[in-house]
Amino acid sequence: MTTEYNTLLKSPRWFEKRKTILARDGNKCRCCGATTTLQAHHRQYHVSKRTGQFLLPWKYQSKYLITLCDKCHSAGHANFKVPTFTI
């Protein structure tokens, strides 16, 4: 993860999107059911065909985000590559 991306995840717009996703998922990890250390995970990344830039984290449709606890999120990234699509 880049420093720039980490900065974007501190944006009030990301906090709002994250809050929406966690609420939709009942404030629990969709993998193990944990209710602490929750994060909103991008199921896929999108790159703009026009600009070549990644979509801002809060611009994704909700269907591309899922609530995971820190442990499941880390395990997922360790075992799977998040696909990137040009849109």
Helix tally?
A: 3
Q: Looking across the biggest beta sheet, what order are the strands in?
A: 1-3
Strand content is 15-25%
What is the count of β-strands? 4
Major pleated sheet? 2 strands, antiparallel
Q: Into which percent range does the helicity of residues fall?
A: 25-40%
Q: Overall pLDDT, averaged? A: 95
Described by the principal axes of the CA atoms, the overall outline is globular
Give the SSE order as H and E letters: HHEEEHE
First-residue to last-residue Cα separation: 21 Å
Structural class: alpha+beta
User: Low-confidence parts, pLDDT < 50 over ≥5 residues?
Assistant: none
Quick recap:
The chain has 3 helices and 4 strands.
Describe the structure.
There is one protein chain. This protein has 87 residues and is of the alpha+beta class. The chain has one domain (3-86). It is built from three helices and four strands. It has helices at 3-8, 12-24, 70-79, and strands spanning 38-42, 45-47, 65-69, 84-86. The strands form two sheets. It has a two-stranded antiparallel ribbon. The chain is globular, with a radius of gyration of 13 Å. The chain starts with a helix and ends with a strand.
